[in-house]
Each structure stands twice: as C-alpha cells, then as structure tokens.
Design brief:
Strand content: 5-15%
Structural class: alpha+beta
Distance between the termini: 64 Å
Helix content: 40-55%
Shape: elongated
Largest sheet: 5 strands, antiparallel
Number of strands: 7
Radius of gyration: 24 Å
C-alpha cells in the first residue's frame, strides 16, 4: 500500500544481502524449536556442531573448537566460515612462503564452498547469511573479497596478530554463552565485523610482506596482457578480464584484483586500460602502423573513440604525440 512505501523501500534495500533460507528439516539440533526455521537438509550451523558433538547455543552462528574429536569429513555449507589453524605443518597447501608468518593460518569460506571439518588444533567461526541480513556486517561482507580467495591464498598471522584475533573470538564465545536475547544478533554481528576488519588489515600487511613476489606476478601479468593484445584477440573478444587471466597466473580473480590494488592503487580493469595506453604510446612511436590500425588492435570501437581516450589520458591527440 502507498502509505507503507517507506517500509517497503527499507526492506527492498536489504535484498542485495538476502540469501534464501535453507529448506526445512534435517538440521543438527533436536526436532522443532528455534533451529527448525533455518535448518538445511545437511548443511547448517547445527550440523557442524553435531559433527563435533558441540552444543548449539545459537542456530545461526557457532564458534567451534576444531581440536575436538570430529565425526564428519568435508561438507559444503550454506554458511560463511572462518577457519583458524595453529601451527600448520604443510604450509604450502595454504600458499605459505618463506616471507609469511607461521603462527596461525586463516581460511575464509563463502557459502557453498567445502569446509574440511577435520581441521586440527584451531577454531572455526561459522555463521549463516540470515544472521547478517540487513545489518552493517551484511553490507560490509561485500568488501571482504578474501571469502572468495583460493585455498592457497590463505592469511598467515603473526603471534601478535593471533592474540588480537583470539580476543575477538573470545568475545564471540562469551556472547554465545550469554544466551539468545534481543541484543544477541547486533552484538555478535558487531564483534564479527570487528574481527573481519582486523583480517582486512592483516591481509593488507601480508601484501606488503609479499611485495617482491607481487612484483614478479605483475611482470607475468604484463606479459599476459601484452600477449593478448599482440595476438589480436582483444580486437574481437574484448579486453582481458580478471576471471580470464587469474587462473593462468595461479590466482583467484579476487586475489589478483586485491594484489594489484595494493601495489598500484588500481584494480584489474583499470590496470588493463592503463597498460593499453602504454602499448598505444609504443605503437605510435614505432610509427609502423596507422592510427586506425592501432585503434583496432587495442580493442577500441572506432578511431574517434581511441583519439578521445588517448587525449584524455595524455593531453594530446595520437597524431600530436608522435
């Protein structure tokens, strides 16, 4: 109704953060009760608790001690999960190099990705998208691109960083032990948001400590981009994208984009466009191709478009640049 439009707008503004609730039945809790509304057939917070024989203190979020005996294996959940592993022996599996810290390894998993429930000596924070719906945390999750990183792009913490993280996890555990009330959701979401903000800081630090390796990766990326232009594929297939190039560099698209932003301040799309301008300058200086041909090779829709973009970037037209 028209008189309720403000309320409808408020609800619709949350749509981007909504995930369909799992189907009813088969959760990890006793039949009925609060968990029944959110229980998936096999994959939910309650199911993960049951694998560790842990009590479900809240149907949408749990902090699990993964050093406890586990009856499960790998499960694909409908939840977000942050897995903390202490003293991982096989660091290579998680991408740890000699320039990384070794105290704790952290994996971030978005819904519908497999979680290994047999992780030893650590903690796992798992929460359902319904918990964060229409909250500041739900909106902030869009900036936490590390939930879509590969397994070998994990975060490696120092002992000091782990102490900071452990305090946040302790606050989550204390709040879960308090019991569910009208304030539980807001407080737990605030603590998780603080935890993820710290993790964003620690990933930014990790990109700094990996600077030399990042420079090597960027050199490989430059060669890949130049090869795409030289092959003529850009003229018919469009500019190279993160999703197309990242696998060829052994990275996830999100990690490649974040690494570039850390090193250059530009994401993949802007970086490719800047690289295209560098190639345009080289080709114009070489003088062995007309402007129309350079425009086509570089994937511009027309010579006029190329000239406009080139002048915007350099301050002069292609003809004036030579």
């Amino acid at each position: 109704m028209k008189e309720n439009k403000p309320e409808q707008d408020s609800v619709s503004s949350c749509a981007a953060y909504q995930t369909p609730l799992p189907k009813e039945g088969g959760g990890g809790c006793a039949d009925g009760g609060e968990c029944a509304e959110y229980a998936a057939t096999d994959n939910c917070v309650c199911e993960c608790n049951r694998a560790y024989n842990a009590e479900t203190l809240h149907p949408l979020v749990s902090l699990i001690d993964t050093s406890a005996p586990c009856s499960g294996g790998s499960v694909s959940t409908d939840c977000y999960a942050v897995v903390f592993m202490r003293g991982v022996a096989d660091g290579a599996e998680y991408g740890r190099k000699y320039y990384d810290f070794t105290d704790t390894t952290v994996l971030f998993l978005a819904p519908r990705r497999d979680i290994d429930l047999r992780t030893a000596d650590g903690k796992m924070l798992i929460f359902h998208p319904a918990l964060v719906r229409c909250t500041p945390l739900g909106m902030a999750l869009g900036d936490c691109s590390f939930f879509n990183y590969r397994r070998d792009e994990a975060l490696h913490l120092s002992a000091c960083e782990w102490r900071v993280v452990k305090r946040c996890l302790g606050c989550v555990g204390d709040e879960l032990g308090w019991g569910v009330d009208a304030h539980s959701k807001g407080i737990i979401c605030t603590i998780i948001e603080l935890l993820l903000n710290y993790c964003r800081r620690f990933y930014a630090r990790q990109f700094i400590t990996r600077h030399d390796a990042n420079i090597e990766a960027m050199a490989a990326l430059d060669a890949l981009i130049d090869g795409e232009f030289a092959s003529g594929r850009v003229a018919s297939g469009g500019l190279p994208t993160a999703s197309a190039m990242a696998p060829r560099l052994g990275m996830s698209p999100c990690y490649l984009d974040d690494m570039l932003r850390s090193e250059t301040g530009n994401g993949v799309d802007d970086y490719v466009r800047l690289r295209r301008m560098r190639l345009a300058k080289r080709m114009l200086i070489a003088g062995d191709k007309p402007v129309s041909e350079i425009s086509r090779i570089l994937g511009f829709c027309s010579e006029k478009c190329f000239a406009a973009v080139f002048k915007k970037v350099t301050g002069v037209s292609p003809e004036e640049y030579v």
